[in-house]
């Protein structure tokens, strides 16, 4: 194991003053370099294989960080959706940052409904600023008293009645430095998005494994249909001869040309070669797409529609009971795959 091997200057029997050319000529040193190259190349391929994976649209990420006198909490919830729908819920003082948040999330998530909730909690004891609009309160009071006299209502106008009027009291939270808030909010968003994408990748791998498990029976079923289709003509020809011989009790001589014509008509109606070839081509594309880290959910859905169309056509053409049962199995597997595709980004 290259990780457990220690290649020191002593093990190479080279001193610090040894020329570089001599070190490169040492067989052990050359062997070490080759093994190191293979190890790094293998790790690179492994990482690339992990990166090339479909992602799920459902995930959740949460982070909470304290910066100075404020604690930021960011929650990101991803759900299935046909398009990319990003919704942000944040305190009024951070509203100017809403578009920045949407643009950032859109660079990481391209499909699905994304709900982002941002909360800010002030840890300091500094109270909010409260302002009372005294002139407006006086105007309300005078107007209410005038209304009371005009209607002949003997009731004093109390302070609570005035306070209930709109605009009397204004509560202002401590001012927020938008650029400073963005710096701290960005750190929270990055961490939450990392958690979201990690969950999306994990669920995507599970979905991909399920696809691989179900694509096998579909391919096998198509191969069985293709193999059986090669014998359809000869089987039908023999069956037709037997039926005619049985009905005529061997009295009527069978016209070979007429028989060939009937068989040719059957071939035209029941040949499924083209459908099987197209279906296998769609399956090949499907396998290629699920190994991609690009958003392929819609493309997979389209391919499944085409696959179902080919399988339905095959089902309408085959008359053999065994082949019909295979078609039913194919439809069942494709329906299960279709349900999973709805979760793919």
Protein architecture, described:
By secondary structure, the protein is of the alpha+beta class. The protein has four domains: 2-51; 59-126 and 174-198, Ribosomal Protein S5, domain 2 (2-Layer Sandwich), CATH 3.30.230; 129-172, no CATH class; 205-341, no CATH class. 60% of the residues lie in helices and 13% in strands. It is built from eleven helices and six strands. It has helices at residues 20-25, 27-51, 98-108, 134-151, 159-163, 178-229, 232-248, 256-270, 273-289, 297-317, 321-341; strands spanning 59-67, 70-79, 84-89, 112-122, 129-132, 169-172. The strands form two sheets. A four-stranded mixed beta sheet has the order 1-2-4-3. Strand 3, helix 3 (98-108) and strand 4 form a beta-alpha-beta unit. Helix 6 runs antiparallel to helix 9 (273-289) and helix 6 (178-229) runs antiparallel to helix 11. The longest helix is centred in the middle third of the chain and has 52 residues, at 178-229. The model is unreliable at 1-16 and 44-50 (pLDDT under 50).
Structural key phrases:
single chain; 345 residues; alpha+beta; Ribosomal Protein S5, domain 2; 4 domains; four-stranded mixed sheet; two-stranded antiparallel ribbon; 11 helices; 6 strands; 60% helix; elongated; disordered N terminus
């Amino acid at each position: 194991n290259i990780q457990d091997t220690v290649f020191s200057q002593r093990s190479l029997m080279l001193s610090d003053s040894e020329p570089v050319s001599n070190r490169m000529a040492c067989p052990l040193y050359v062997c070490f370099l080759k093994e190191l190259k293979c190890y790094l190349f293998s790790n690179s391929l492994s990482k690339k294989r992990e990166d090339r994976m479909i992602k799920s649209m459902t995930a959740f990420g949460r982070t909470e960080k304290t910066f100075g006198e404020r604690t930021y909490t960011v929650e990101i919830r991803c759900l299935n959706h046909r398009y990319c729908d990003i919704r942000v819920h944040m305190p009024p003082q951070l509203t100017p940052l809403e578009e920045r948040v949407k643009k950032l999330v859109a660079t990481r998530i391209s499909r699905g409904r994304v709900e982002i909730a941002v909360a800010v909690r002030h840890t300091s004891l500094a109270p909010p600023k409260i302002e009372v609009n005294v002139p407006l309160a006086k105007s309300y009071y005078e107007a209410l008293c005038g209304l009371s006299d005009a209607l002949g209502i003997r009731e004093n106008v109390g302070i609570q009645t005035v306070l209930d009027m709109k605009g009397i009291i204004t509560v202002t939270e401590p001012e927020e430095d938008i650029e400073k808030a963005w710096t701290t909010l960005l750190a929270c968003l990055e961490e939450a998005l990392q958690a979201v994408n990690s969950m999306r990748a994990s669920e995507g791998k599970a979905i991909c494994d399920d696809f691989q498990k179900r694509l096998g029976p579909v391919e096998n079923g198509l191969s069985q249909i293709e193999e059986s289709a090669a014998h359809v003509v000869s089987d039908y020809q023999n069956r037709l001869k037997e039926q005619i011989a049985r009905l005529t009790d061997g009295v009527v001589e069978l016209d070979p040309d007429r028989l060939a014509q009937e068989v040719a008509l059957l071939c035209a109606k029941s040949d499924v070669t083209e459908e099987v070839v197209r279906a296998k081509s769609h399956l090949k594309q499907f396998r290629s797409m699920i190994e991609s880290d690009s958003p392929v959910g819609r493309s997979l859905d389209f391919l499944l529609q085409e696959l179902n169309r080919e399988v339905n056509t095959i089902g309408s053409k085959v008359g053999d009971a065994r082949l019909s049962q295979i078609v039913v199995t194919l439809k069942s597997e494709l329906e299960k795959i279709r349900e999973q595709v709805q979760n793919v980004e």
